[in-house]
Amino acid sequence: MKFTCSQQALSKALLTVSKAVTSKTTIPILKGILLKATANGELVLSASDFDISVEKKITDVNVTTEGSVVVLSKLFTDIIRKLPNEDIFIEQIEDNSLIIKTSKSEFTILGLSPEEFPQIGEVEEEDKLVFEKDFFREMIRKSSFSASIDESKGVIVGVLIEIEENNTNMIALDGFRMAVVREEIKSEKQNKIIIPAKILNEINKILSETEETNDITLILSAKKAMLLFENVKIVIRLLEGEFIKYKDILPSENKCKVKVSKVLLHEAMDRASLLSREGKNNLIRFTINDELLTITSRSEEGNVKEEIPISKEGNDIEIGFNSKYILDVLKVLDDEEIVIELVSSVKPCIIKPVEGNGYEYLVLPVRIS
């Protein structure tokens, strides 16, 4: 294998595929990235940890001799990143070693045989969806933070992607809160898949680094999904199991409906959470009375009181929350005003934008004395 390509293009491609490299493995080949130079002038980089596989093609490459080798991801990426912004010459020599050269630098590093590297392969298409990149990223951002981080909790470490006739929804929950995002994306078939939230977050990082992409194609099969965009292919192993019937959890009524400035609530919550250590559950208390929301919290170090003007329909109410769960949703909502719908001090509440049903966030209260 012998080729020349630009340092910038190679460094950017390595940043993309390295999202699939795992350090938590005893299998050396999974710490590597497969480089494959082809006769038609392409360099294909691949990485896999079996749960996610990423492949990225660089098309503007001068390939003298085709071939393939696996390089250790961290070392190779660090070398390429620190080289000057010029063409890099790379040649495979005996025992899978590589020479990496620029005008003033030369490295020789050990590689691994590509024979044991996992095949990324294709996904047999059972269904296909096309998302606009920004919509897809927003759906991930507004849902994945609500998934459980406890690996023993089964499928709720994942995000449910629910494909209906006129909507595609993303749902994530952890037993204390739940986020539901809905987008008007039509599909000929109804389908449901569950993707690990940590993998969706890695995909979101990859998408944030791509500038040209507008549309993303999602191809679905029974056990795998594949994303295609801008010379990138990502294959994901889906989680198997039955997701919780989330529609049954959403309240069908409210006894108190509050409209409040998101910025004012976020700032007040940020301050109140500094002292919300009582009982180690980050407790803050909402007291809704007439046109005022009073937020209080206390700890051994002191106490705090914040007051925010609101518009209210329905009953006055006093309710406790884990401040983290409220702050998390306020970070992802972009609306100037939001609505909080409550039933009682012991039943879940809903936080959502003022208009439409594109987003709902359910959070369980904390019992207060």
Note the main attributes of this structure.
3 domains; DNA Polymerase III, Chain A, domain 2; single chain; nine-stranded antiparallel beta sheet; 369 residues; alpha+beta
Give the C-alpha Rg. Answer: 25 Å
**Derived structural class:** alpha+beta
The count of domains is 3
Amino- and carboxy-terminal Cα gap: 71 Å
Query: Please, how many helices?
Result: 6
Average pLDDT, all residues: 93
**Overall 3D geometry?**
elongated
CATH superfamily of the largest domain: DNA Polymerase III, subunit A, domain 2
Give the strand line-up of the largest sheet.
Answer: 14-11-12-13-26-25-24-18-22
* Helicity level: 10-25%
Strand content: 35-45%
* Low-pLDDT sequence parts: none
Text of the CATH class of the largest domain: Alpha Beta
CATH topology label of the largest domain: DNA Polymerase III, Chain A, domain 2
Number of separate strands: 26
Largest β-sheet summary: 9 strands, antiparallel
Query: Can you name the CATH architecture of the largest domain?
Result: Roll
Q: Brief overview, please?
A:
With 369 residues, the chain is of the alpha+beta class. The strands form 4 sheets. A 9-stranded antiparallel sheet has the order 14-11-12-13-26-25-24-18-22. Strands 6-2-3-4-17-16-15-10 form an 8-stranded antiparallel sheet.
